[in-house]
Amino acid sequence: MLESIVSYMSGIDWILIAKAVAVAVAGLTISWLLRLILFKVLVRALPVKLVRMITRIIYYVLVFLVLVSVLGTIGIDLTGLVVAGGVVGIILGFALQNTVANLFSGLFLQWEKPFKIGNGVKIGGIEGIVIDQSILSTRIRGYDGVIHRVPNYTIFQSEITNYHGSVARRVDFRIGIAYREDAEKAYNVIKAVLDQHPYVLADPPPDVFVVELASSSVDIMVRAWIPNVDGLPWKARMELLWLIKKAIDEAGIEIPFIQTDIWFRTPLKIEATSLCNKDENVDGSSSK
Questions:
Q1: What is the pTM of this model?
Q2: Structural domain count, the chain
Q3: What CATH number did the domain enclosing 147 receive?
Q4: How many angstroms separate the CA atoms of 23 and 39, rounded?
Q5: Are residues 238 and 267 both part of a single domain?
Q6: Which residues contact 164 (CB under 8 A, 6 or more apart)?
Q7: DSSP bridge partners of 126
Q8: What was the pLDDT predicted at 199?
Q9: pLDDT digits over 126-135, tens only?
Q10: CATH number, domain with residue 195
């Protein structure tokens, strides 16, 4: 019994095993250090949850490569495993190409951060508030209450408008007054409403100016900057339109409707025949 054990032990290539152990220890140590370094680097730009998932995946891939290296060191032929892995990889690549595209698009979006949860955005034809963002898709609650799930690959290829990307937003609208009205009076009335409104910023100051001499009205452009928090730009726009309309009415300034005046180059001749004359002619002809 003892002789068989000694014989078995003497047949083992201890140098080869030592090399395999050294490769395993070195590989696992390097994998762990790379995972730690990547976590500290990526956590500065990406959410912690996402960084943990990325570093975990990378760590497992490195551990697999270390295992392959150890098996190759002790003399196990891995040619069949490599070929099979390549075939499986090709199949999975075709099957998961959309998922992979969404995955990498999600990583780029997390890195670039064109919007964050709670922002009002317009992506393609969808407008609403971002309520959730994952590595594969983003959920947007439309202003009508409908929830939209948008793949990150679609977002990455689309034009993104972030309504909350700045600290203040400008609201614009036109007010038309009749040509016979005093434009300076209208300016003072509108400017007074802007100066008294609590949401209108003093810096940059609001603008009121004649933007166009239209066919039926003198159009006045109104521009005001509003703090971009809690939907204030939308609320301020509604309130300003209502207050300016009331102020203009109280000042007796006319807001005209669309009208067209027709002028003829030469005077028109209109001949009118009295109905009484027609009746007399008819009676006279009948008497004859």
A1: 0.58
A2: 3
A3: 2.30.30.60
A4: 24
A5: yes
A6: 115, 118, 119, 120, 228
A7: 123
A8: 93
A9: 999 999 988 8
A10: 3.30.70.100
